[in-house]
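Hey, quick one: can you model this chain's 3D structure?
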Amino acid sequence: RAPMSATSEIMEIGDIAKKYPRKARHPELFDVNQVDSWVVPAFQDALSPWLDTGDPTKIDVAALPDIRVDAPGVVSFQCLDHDFCKRLLNEVVHYTEESGFPQMPPNSMNRFGVVLNQIGMRLAFSIFFRRYIMGVGARLFGNASNRAESVDGVALGTDDWGGSSLTDHHTFVVRYAADRDRGLDMHVDECDLTFNFGLTDFDECLGGDLAFCGMFGETLYRKRHHTYKHEVGRCVVHAGKRRHSVTEVEAGERASLVVWTKSILFRK
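Sure thing. Here's the predicted structure for all 268 residues.
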C-alpha cells in the first residue's frame, strides 16, 4: 500500500466517509436507527436499567448473557447478533477487495482491516458506544462506586481503568489469515479499555486465538494467564495495558471488531 501524506489522508478520509455509504453493500449498517438491532435481546435487556437511568450500578452483571471471567481482569459475554456480524464482515470484504476505495491500515500493528469510523460508520458506532459500551465499561472497569467486584461469587479481578469516564472510541475490524497478517506479537493497546468482538467462530480457523498475560508493569507481566478462543458475537473486555497477543493462523480466517476506548479524565 502506497503511503499517503498527512494532508491527503485527512482529505481522503473525509471524502470516504461521505461517499462510501452510497456504495455500501449493506447500507442498513450505516443507519443510526438500526443500532439496537446489532445486539442480542438479552444483552439489551441487561443494559436497559442503564439506558433508563444513566446509572451503571443498575446493571446486574450476572444478567449479561453467558458472562464469563476468563482470567482475572478479562471478562467476556454474548453481545452482537450473529447476522449483524456476518453482514459487517461482508461489508469489510466488499470495502477492501471490491470497492476501489483507498485502503489504510486499521492501526499501527495490523495491515489488514478497516477503520469503520473512516468509512462512514462513526456516528452509528458513537451511538453504540454511548448506549452500551459506556455502561459496561463503568460497571466492569470504572471507579470504586460504579465497579462490580464479582459475578456469581467469582471475582472479576478488574480495576479502575477509566471506565466511568470514557469519552471516545477508535473502532475497526482486523483480519488474520495465513496469507495476510498471520498473528500479532505480545503487546498492549493504544487505549484505556479494549472491547473485542468475534466476527468469526473459533472453528472457522486454526489459530488466531488471544493469549493473555499480565498487566504491563506488573512483576508477572510476562506470565500467560489464559488463551481465549473467539466466538461469533461474543465480546471480551480488558484493560488496554493488559499484555496480549494473537496466535498465528495456520488455516482459515479470524476476524474481529475491535473498539478501543479512551477516557480523557482518567489520563489526566
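One thing worth noting: The CA atoms of residues 238 and 259 lie 11 Å apart.
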